[in-house]
Write a structure and sequence with these properties.
The chain has about 270 residues and is an alpha/beta fold. It has helices at about 15-25, 35-45, 50-60, 75-95, 115-130, 150-160, 170-175, 220-230, 245-250, 250-269, and strands at about 5-10, 30-35, 65-70, 100-105, 135, 165, 190-195, 235-240. The chain has one domain: Divalent-metal-dependent TIM barrel enzymes (TIM Barrel). Helix 4 (about 75-95) runs parallel beside helix 5 (about 115-130) and helix 5 crosses helix 6.
């Protein structure tokens, strides 16, 4: 796969925002996915997003996505209006740090998927106004949108040129859908591929974010997933996204460097 390496800031979560940027640049990544919570905390502590953008430039880093918008899908009334306002704020943050995409996450509980397209189109229109593309995410442990097929149906129902999706091996395996569904998604509709592996210590259906492991350290069919992504023509970033308490207790520079080594070894093989 012709890819460039990206670090999702969750992988070294305890580090400060500026430390995450510095570490990603120093350990060889070309990009970093940032989280809105980190950007908000930075602003609330007196920092500015101009400082963040300058730090990114100083370390030669792009920002493919900012994470994440919640509550916009399946909500009603005042809660829906409030969620859209919060989504607007988060997309404006994404714009200020140079991100092309903002990740749009589904709710935990089920809802009528037939209305998903209308809700997503509403979000896409706000994004078009701001200049950021909301990227539809499926999350394998949610009860609402947990497979590629469900997310892709919402994207198709939205009938909008800016619709796109986040792809992730862990969520494909956790959600239980066939990995062959990757072939449904054209490469130009993929905002980014998150990259990780799943361990064999418990069934995929019982795993959580915290169970993810480095590429090659698990038993997931990553080579088949890569083959299918490559067949679709994907040539964007692969972003190391882990949520490991064990890794969070280690030196974040060491973790980022190990992640780069694992990614390079995996793709070289």
């Amino acid at each position: 796969m012709a890819v460039q390496y990206c670090l999702n800031a969750s992988t070294i979560r305890p580090a400060s925002l500026m430390e995450k940027i510095r570490i990603a640049g120093q350990t060889g990544y070309k990009a970093i996915e940032l989280w809105n919570d980190d950007l908000t905390a930075h602003e609330e502590s007196g920092g500015s997003l101009k400082d963040v953008k300058q730090a990114l430039s100083d370390h030669g880093l792009a920002v493919p996505t900012v994470i994440a918008m919640h509550g916009w899908l399946g909500s009603e009334g005042a809660a829906h209006a409030q969620a859209l306002e919060e989504a607007r704020r988060k997309m404006e943050q994404a714009l200020q740090v140079g991100a092309q995409y903002a990740i749009a996450s589904p709710p935990m509980e089920p809802f009528d998927l037939r209305r998903g397209g209308a809700d997503y189109r509403e979000l896409l229109e706000i994004g078009k106004e701001i200049g950021v593309r909301p990227a539809m995410e499926y999350l394998g442990f949610m009860k609402s949108v947990y497979t590629i097929e469900q997310a892709w149906q919402i994207a198709q129902d939205a009938d909008h040129p800016d619709s796109c999706m986040i792809m992730d091996p862990f969520h494909i395996l956790r959600g239980g859908g066939p990995i062959e569904s990757i072939a449904l998604i054209p490469a130009d509709k993929v905002a980014i591929w998150h990259w990780n592996d799943a361990p064999g210590s418990k069934p995929f259906s019982e795993q959580s974010d915290a169970d993810r492991v480095m590429p090659g350290d698990g038993v997931g069919p990553l080579k088949e997933i890569e083959r299918l992504a490559l067949a679709q023509g994907y040539e964007g970033y692969v972003s190391l996204e882990l949520f490991s308490e064990a890794l969070w207790q280690q030196d974040p520079t060491d973790v980022a460097r190990l992640g780069m080594e694992k990614m390079q070894a995996y793709f070289a093989a």
